[in-house]
Amino acid sequence: MHLVGVGLGFVIGLSLGLLGGGGSILTVPIFVYVLGFGAKESIAMSLAVVGATSLVGAVHHSREGHVNVRVALIFGAIATIGTYVGTRVATRLSGGEQLAIFAAVMFVAAAAMIRGRRGEADVTAATSTSLFITAIRGFVVGTLTGLVGVGGGFLIVPALVWGGLSMHDAVGTSLLVIAMNCVMGFYGYLGHVQIAWLSIALVTAGTMPGIVTGTYAMRFVSQQALRRGFAVLLFGLAVYMLYRNLTV
Fold first, then answer.
1. pTM of this prediction?
2. 69, 109, 141, 219: which has the fewest Cβ within 10 Å?
3. Tens digit of each residue's pLDDT (9 = 90 or more) over 107-157
4. How many domains does the chain have?
5. CA neighbor of 187 nearest in space, from 99, 74, 88, 59
6. Would you say the C-alpha torsion 170, 171, 175, 178 has a positive or negative sign?
7. How far is CA 83 from CA 50, 115, 152, in A?
8. Which residue range forms the structural domain that includes residue 85?
């Protein structure tokens, strides 16, 4: 089972490196349905894994000049407020309710990936509206992070592109924002759930080479084909999770 955790961690990291998000969408189901942890514990541990992995990915993207630290700090500051709110709300929900919400978020993420992201040539709109929308998205992303352990890359990347960043810069900057969100979210769960540190370490051991591989492979892979394939996987996982948590 230890080797399984490391192997699945590699897949999580690969997703984060290639797409700038999607890792947390996979991490929670892996902890729940493969490694056998409870919902709340899985959400908390997912935040630790994805946060550490995203930070490593952000460093690699930064070396290639694809991280806008100023934008990440502004977006991340708003998002962390939402993350705190999300963790407070999460204490009032059952684990099953959180997983059902998580599955609904997966449907939204899959639909967004199939639809695709706005191209770099389409980001010439006025920045005043973009900044307002970006701020709203930041709060929503943060709330989802605290509530169900979703890093929110599938929302952060298009928000940053609409705000004026290139696709590559948006992916790199997204990873830094995700890391900030996950730190706040994990802190909110400490003391409220039992943390299996060994399992976190094993999965993270797989995500680290995964995200380095994904960051390197990003330049050679069709992003459109990759997003659509990943969307199909998300739809399947979402249906399964809703079936498990909404049926008696």
1. 0.75
2. 219
3. 887 787 677 644 444 444 434 446 677 778 788 888 988 888 776 776 677
4. 1
5. 88
6. positive
7. 15, 26, 11
8. 2-246
